[in-house]
Write a structure and sequence with these properties.
Number of strands: 6
Largest sheet: 6 strands, parallel
CATH architecture: 3-Layer(aba) Sandwich
Shape: globular
Number of helices: 9
CATH class: Alpha Beta
Number of domains: 1
CATH topology: Undecaprenyl pyrophosphate synthetase
Bound molecules: farnesyl diphosphate
């Protein structure tokens, strides 16, 4: 089975999972930690190179304060509890997004986790916190504009590769497979640049119910796709012709 090198996931549906049980939204987020572990374990087991999870978007800051602080507490707890295990499995953990608004103790935990796992050569795990695809692109544009203004870069020298190297996922292959749970068919300001040619898989399953068999369905979907990157079928050397 053709394996994606890089999988990106929008973990959606925690609130609805909780509401369906008459529970507060936070109970859904708490229940959403187990499928994070399962997804990481499955990617490690299958030998996937990179996994990027959308944990908190730049827009999520507008949620009610108790929900935001509850989520931040969950992130700290998950780091405290799972970092040893991730490290033991050779996972390299990084965070993408704008950290400046995060609590200082969370920023410190994140930096510590990144430093501790930096030399690991197993799964490259990116957790997006305070992330927005448009923010990412604008930040890259600012960095490149500064380089042009200082004379370090000429505008004519700016290529797609150089631009990509200024984004948060610099150095990683673009995601091959995108998964969104929770039934919505949207990208919701996730990796706007990097998802240009990604295969998109949408699941109606709510994130707390996401498990290894649901992830296997996404991998099977990916394996069945013929990726043309703008070429014709004969050019790709494929014999199958999918629409
Ligand atoms: C979207 O569901 C989910 C989030 C905004 C939070 C995701 C967080 C977790 C899965 C917790 C664990 C994460 C880590 C990295 C340890 P929603 O609240 O928008 O659900 P709804 O659409 O049903 O309201």
């Amino acid at each position: 089975m053709t394996l994606p090198r890089h999988v990106a996931i929008i973990m959606d549906g925690n609130g609805r999972w909780a509401a369906a049980r008459g529970l507060p939204r936070h109970a859904g987020h708490r229940q959403g930690v187990a499928p994070v572990r399962t997804s990481v374990e499955e990617c490690v087991r299958r030998g996937v190179e990179a996994l990027t999870l959308f944990a908190f978007s730049s827009e999520n800051w507008r949620r009610p304060e108790p929900e935001v602080s509850g989520l931040m507490g969950l992130f700290v707890d998950a780091l405290d509890r799972d970092l040893d295990e991730l490290h033991a499995r050779g996972v390299r953990l990084r965070f993408i997004g704008d950290r400046r608004s995060l609590a200082v103790r969370l920023q410190a935990r994140m930096a510590g986790a990144e430093a501790r796992t930096a030399a690991n050569d197993g799964l490259k795990l990116q957790v997006a916190v305070g992330y927005g695809g448009r923010w990412d692109i604008v930040e890259a544009a600012k960095r490149l504009a500064r380089a042009c203004a200082s004379g370090a870069l000429r505008p004519e020298e700016l290529t797609e590769e150089r631009f990509a190297a200024s984004l948060e996922l610099a150095g990683l292959p673009d995601p091959d497979l995108f998964v969104r749970t929770g039934g919505e068919r949207r990208i919701s300001n996730f990796l706007l640049w990097n998802l240009a040619y990604t295969e998109l898989w949408f699941s109606d399953c709510l994130w707390p119910d996401f498990d290894a068999s649901e992830l296997t369905r996404a991998f099977e979907f990916f394996a069945s796709r013929q990726r043309r990157f703008g070429l014709t079928t004969p050019q790709t050397g494929e014999t199958r012709d999918h629409a």
